[in-house]
Amino acid sequence: MKTITFDYAKKDGSKSERTLLALTQPTDKYSGIDVSELSPVQAEEFIKLYTQLHDAFLMRAKALQADFDLTHSFRQFLPSGMSNVTEI
Predict the structure, then answer these.
(1) Closest by Cα among 29, 9, 12 to 85
(2) First CA to last CA across the chain, in angstroms?
(3) How far apart are CA 25 and CA 76, in angstroms?
(4) Residues 16-54: pLDDT tens digits?
(5) pTM of the entire structure?
(6) Of 80, 64, 59, 77, which Cα lies nearest the Cα of 19?
């Protein structure tokens, strides 16, 4: 994760200055944990436990967003509309 600031221009021509805690970055690839080398039983167990851990994290993250009144602040930005991108 990193925090960036940038100017954003929407397709309709409107512009805004943004500060974003970037959770992902644009890509053309799938990202994830490759469990190919585990046995099917181990892979199933890992996926089950990882999913439980991830779900618990998401619940806590949503609660934190609510605490800061950011429940509806998840946004996606087209890289083509971003300029003056600075990592802070």
Answers:
(1) 9
(2) 11
(3) 10
(4) 999 999 988 888 888 889 999 999 999 999 999 999 999
(5) 0.76
(6) 77
Closest listed residue to residue 84, CA positions, set 33, 34, 26, 20: 20
- Residue indicated by tokens 């509806």: 72
- Residues linked to residue 20 through DSSP beta bridges, in sequence order: 4
Rounded Cα distance, 13 and 86, in Å: 22
Tokens of 10: 């929407």
Q: What angle do CA 50, 26, 54 make, to 5 degrees?
A: 15
At 31, is the secondary structure helix, strand, or coil? Answer: coil
